[in-house]
């Protein structure tokens, strides 16, 4: 039976309208190397405003992850919101799966859009990409915000049982869910009070998976495997930009200790803010607190 109505796609349409109403437009950039990148950019760039790059994580697309904040942020910044490779309208025929490759692709888009400097915010997987941008492009990136992103994890952490799920393949199956059961497991790990989502019927979960999670499944799982492969804290370069680390107190995807570990690694150059009574999805659970913390660091502070 053909599906006639999709709640998920309807919400996608609403978020696209929100982005358009906030002064952004959808663009496609051919990097001429087998890679196509989709990015939301300002319809008209205001030279007096600073530039802000927002990088999404896994799960729902960039529209869903940034839609709640986009109107407020576009009042303060020229905002750029790319789809990472294998998400939304971005894809590649190249074999690379590292966050470094993702960072290179985002940087090429920024160069082709004539963006000369940005502050960058990365959610979860997007935090790995944001950190890599800070390492690779020191002169381009002014400030870095890492949100619940296990940049400081080591490959041995997985084997040592540091995470609730110690099998990387199983973790990839949960983070890129293909059944309502796996999506419910993801909710359980991502939210501090997942019971609030227990009422969602399976038909809605099927709809979400069909709309959001059916493309590039293997490629996304390869991205997850790549972030842990041969990873050691001693090999992690220190970024020089002022850095804000934001974490949910009860994060089960990337435990809070990883945030403190990153703070110790970066030293006085970084500050950490722990959002109480929130999990990995703190930007949803504590949206106002998250936005105020972000604004304080990016706008109100002069560090």
From TrEMBL:
Sequence ranges assigned to domain AB hydrolase-1 in this UniProt record: 52-290
Keywords: Hydrolase
MF annotations from Gene Ontology: triacylglycerol lipase activity
EC number: 3.1.1.3
Keyword Phosphoprotein: no
EC class of the enzyme, as a word: hydrolase
Highest taxon of source: Eukaryota
Pfam families from the UniProt entry: Abhydrolase_6 (PF12697)
TM regions (residue ranges): none
Keyword check for Repeat: no
PANTHER family referenced in this protein's UniProt entry, alphabetically: ALPHA_BETA-HYDROLASES SUPERFAMILY PROTEIN, SI:DKEY-122A22.2
Protein name: Alpha/beta-hydrolase superfamily protein
Underlying gene: 25494801
């Amino acid at each position: 039976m053909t599906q006639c109505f999709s709640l998920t796609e309807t919400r996608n349409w609403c978020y696209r309208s929100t982005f358009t109403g906030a002064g952004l437009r959808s663009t496609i950039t051919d990097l001429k190397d087998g890679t196509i990148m989709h990015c939301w950019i300002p319809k008209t760039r205001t030279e007096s405003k600073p530039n802000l790059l927002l990088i999404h994580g896994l799960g729902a697309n960039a529209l869903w992850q940034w839609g709640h904040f986009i109107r407020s942020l576009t009042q303060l910044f020229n905002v750029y919101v790319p789809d990472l490779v294998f998400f939304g309208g971005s894809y590649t025929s190249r074999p690379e799966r590292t966050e470094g490759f993702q960072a290179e692709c985002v940087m090429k888009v920024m160069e082709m859009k004539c963006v000369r400097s940005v502050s960058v915010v990365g959610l979860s997987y997007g935090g790995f990409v944001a950190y890599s941008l800070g390492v690779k492009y020191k002169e381009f990136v002014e400030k870095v915000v890492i949100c619940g992103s296990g940049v400081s994890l080591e490959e041995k952490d997985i084997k040592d049982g540091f995470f609730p799920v110690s099998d990387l393949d199983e973790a990839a199956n949960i983070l890129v869910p293909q059944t309502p059961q796996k999506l419910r497991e993801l909710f359980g790990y991502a939210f501090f009070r997942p019971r609030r989502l227990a009422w969602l019927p399976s038909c809605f979960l099927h709809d979400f998976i069909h709309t959001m999670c059916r493309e590039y499944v293997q490629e996304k799982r390869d991205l997850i495997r790549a972030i842990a492969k041969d990873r050691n804290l001693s090999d992690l370069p220190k970024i020089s930009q002022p850095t804000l680390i934001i974490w949910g107190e009860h994060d089960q995807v990337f435990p809070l200790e990883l945030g403190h570990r990153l703070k110790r690694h970066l030293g006085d150059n970084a500050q950490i803010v722990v959002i109480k009574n929130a999990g990995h999805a703190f930007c949803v659970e504590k949206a106002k607190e998250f936005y105020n913390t972000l604004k304080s660091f990016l706008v109100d502070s002069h560090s």
